[in-house]
Amino acid sequence: MMTVVPKKRRDNRLLVEAGIVIAIASILILIVPWILTDFRLSLLGRFLALSIAALGIDLIWGYTGLLSMGHGVFFALGGYLLAMYLKLQIPKDAANQLPEFMNLYGVPELPWFWKPFHDFGFAFLAILIVPTIIGGLLGYLVFRNRIRGVYFSILTQAATVVFFNFFNGQQKLFNGTNGLTDFKTILGADVGQYQFTFYILTIVALVLAYALCRWLTSGRFGNLLVAIRDDENRLRFSGYNPTGFKVIVFAVSAALAAIGGAFYTIQTGRVSPQLMDIGFSIEMVIWVAAGGRGTLIGAILGTLLVNFAKSLLSEQFPEVWLFFQGALFLIVVTVLPDGVVGLRKLFRHRQQPITTYPNIDLNPEVQSEREHPHN
Amino acid sequence: MNESILTTENLTMDFDGFKAINNLNFSMAPGELRVVIGPNGAGKTTFLDLITGKIKPTTGQVLFKGKNIRRYSEEQISRLGIGRKFQTPRVYLNLTARENLELAANKHKDVWGTLFKQLSRDERDRIGILLETIGLAVKAERKADLLSHGEKQRLEIGMLVAQSPELLLVDEPVAGLTDEETENVGHLLVTLAESHAILVIEHDMEFVRQIARKVTVLHQGTVLCEGTIDEVQSDPRVIEVYLGQPQSVDS
Questions:
Q1: Which pLDDT value is given to residue A18?
Q2: B-chain residues within 8 Å CB-CB of A354?
Q3: Which CATH superfamily is domain B6-90+164-249 in?
Q4: What is the mean pLDDT of residues A165-190?
Q5: Which of A59, A236, A310, A357 could pair with B74 in a Cys bridge, judged by C-beta atoms 3.0 to 4.6 Å apart?
Q6: CB contact residues (below 8 A), chain A span 182-241, against chain B
Q7: Which residues of B touch A241 (CB under 8 A)?
């Protein structure tokens, strides 16, 4: 950053980075499955799905400075949209062509908005588009009215409550608090048998999501996001209207959360309103904070570390985890504001603080002024 | 009317009974370097807020090149060609000096333009020259956070110029600067005045003397008098409200 990087060398750096990313992805796909037990591997797959959502949080919070505490909504939406397709994979010769919970609640006919979900292509597009549109719309209404800071965060929290109550209350539409579970087949293939395929697809999606975020956060657009975070009002006097930028970024991060949610759902075999619980949305923020916000890689690392710590600790001492999570949050806020990624600064040779002006106290003129104040 | 770049007509800003700006009539010619002085609370910064659309006047209007800008938002006014420098330097601290200028110089300030349009070679060259002008060429790749106060002031002035505005509004550009830096900024403003209209708000009388050709004195939200610095300084009304307290004027 300290020197002008010629274009050629910048291209090389990008190639190196792409190489590293592909290498890590290959290790995850080819080697890690041989090392981990099936149980740990399935956890890893889920956590990688979570880190797609964490990338979205990093984009909106780490770079643009908008603390969303409602991304669980988009995450769960992604899960529900996929689960609706999965629940409609009913053998053609079955007497009843409705998802079993609908029979339970006496729903006579498939609700209209369920119908298109017979088609995988539709469900796929819906996962990409529906959360994006909802995110964009919410973002537009909020940002256009210049709602910012904690007010924005509170609104996102309120949104989780609204969505939670809606999905929790609609037994006939979404099986209420039990959510959608017991998935059988996807595209004719058995869901249970193809978990390793979903693991690979999750990694591919994560790499693509990383590439997208990397592209968005570099160059002038990325600088603009940072400028919004640093001094949004100033930006208006530079001739930018921040609203459009914030809406786009919010929509993209909502889409990432939804994609993460879909991959998470297929691997856990269940989606329920608990994913829209306020606590879960806040946990997402903690992963990013623990990893190091505004670094992308920190979002992924933080998600994996915190979640593995959570599963290991809860196995050993079931009651301890929440205390640990609280402590983690305090540590990050007080001593590690840059998260795990910020740790490398401790090891690197401490950068010489740059004196921008010939150090003013050493300036002979200043010294003489001090000695003879009445000159 | 169409001769002046900036005119205000009977401008009043009423904050719940307190008239920060009171029936202000002001006019500035294209290419002019004008200094506005006035004691604390005279309404100088409110005046800039009104011109840049940060607040809307209670009554009266602001005309930029004869066009009433009441209905424009801050960013639209900025795009019309009014650039503003704030009292405390407001640069984007986590971006380098060059990136700060690139953001300001961007001609496509919508989402798609910012995302897809590359900086033209022409713009790149202009930014290079601008970095020379504001004396930050060597520190172009340094984060703005690491620049000194004076360098930030100059960077922010550079950001204004990069927007290619016709009118620069500069609020106390030398507050908190050393004598040497003050002189640098003074030279910079005088150089810029060759190609822009500039309105400077200032407290530092020595600095005003260095750059000013015409001075407007604001008092209680309205114009007290106008003239050269010597005329103004010898005006008894000015002496009474402002220069009568020399310790707060001469630093």
A1: 94
A2: 142, 146
A3: P-loop containing nucleotide triphosphate hydrolases (3.40.50.300)
A4: 93
A5: A236
A6: 216, 220-221, 223-224, 226-227, 229-231, 234-241
A7: 73, 75, 109
In single-letter form, the type of residue at position B198 comes to I
Of A216, A223, A360, the CB nearest to B103: A223
pLDDT value at position A332?
Answer: 87
Our measurement of the distance from residue B145's CA atom to the centroid of its chain's CA atoms, rounded to an integer in Å, reads 22
- Encoded tokens for B144: 């703005």
Q: Which of A231, A237, A241, A246 is the best substitution to test chain B (most B C-beta atoms within 10 A)?
A: A237
- To test the contact with chain A by mutation, choose from B55, B86, B99 the residue with the greatest count of A C-beta atoms within 10 A, namely B99
Lowest mean pLDDT among A36-45, B114-123, B137-146: B114-123
The pLDDT-based confidence of A2 (bands split at 50, 70, 90) is very low
CA of B158: which chain A residue's CA is closest? A238
φ, ψ (nearest 5 deg) of residue B84:
-130, 135
Separation between Cα atoms, residue B137 and residue B55, nearest integer Å: 36
ipTM of the complex: 0.88
| Digit-coded pLDDT (tens) for B153-212 | 999 999 999 998 999 999 988 888 888 889 988 998 999 999 999 999 987 888 898 888
- At residue A278, the pLDDT reads 93
Quick: pLDDT tens for B6-36: 999 999 999 998 999 999 999 999 999 999 9
H or E segment to which residue B126 belongs: helix B121-133
What does the pLDDT read at residue A148?
87
Residue B54 CA: distances (Å) to CA of A147, A236, B80, B158? 16, 9, 15, 21
| Residue among A258, A202, A269, A266 at smallest CA distance from A76 | A258
Nearest CB neighbour to B75, from listed A2, A220, A241: A241
Would you state the torsion angle of the CA atoms of residues B13, B16, B20, B23, taken in this order, to the nearest 10 degrees? 40
| Nearest Cβ partner for A244 among B92, B94, B110 | B110
**A189 CB-near residues (< 8 Å, 6+ apart):** none
pLDDT of residue A326: 87
pLDDT above 60: residue A352 = no
Give the closest-approach CA distance of B205 to chain A in angstroms: 20
Q: Which of A1, A2, A230 sits opposite B92 (nearest CB)?
A: A230
Contacts of A223 in chain B (CB under 8 A): 92, 95, 99, 102-103
- The C-alpha atoms of residue B190 and residue B31 are separated, in whole angstroms, by 11
- Give whichever of A87-91, A108-112, A123-127 has the largest mean pLDDT: A123-127
Place of tokens 């990383």: A210
**Please, which residues have CB within 8 angstroms of residue B27's CB and are 6 or more apart in sequence?**
B4, B6, B7, B8
Nearest CA in chain B to A245: B111
Cβ contacts of A310 within 8 Å, gap of 6 or more: A321, A324, A325
Amino acid symbol at A98: L
Nearest to A240 among B52, B109, B115 (CB): B109
A344 at B interface, C-beta within 8 A: no
Which chain A residues are within 8 Å of B144, Cβ to Cβ? Answer: none
Q: Taken in order A291, A297, A299, A300, is the CA torsion positive or negative?
A: negative
Residue with tokens 């291209």: A11
* Placement of tokens 């000695």 in the chain: A371
Q: Which of B227, B231, B161, B226 is nearest to B189 (CA)?
A: B161
Contact: B92, A227; criterion CB under 8 Å: yes
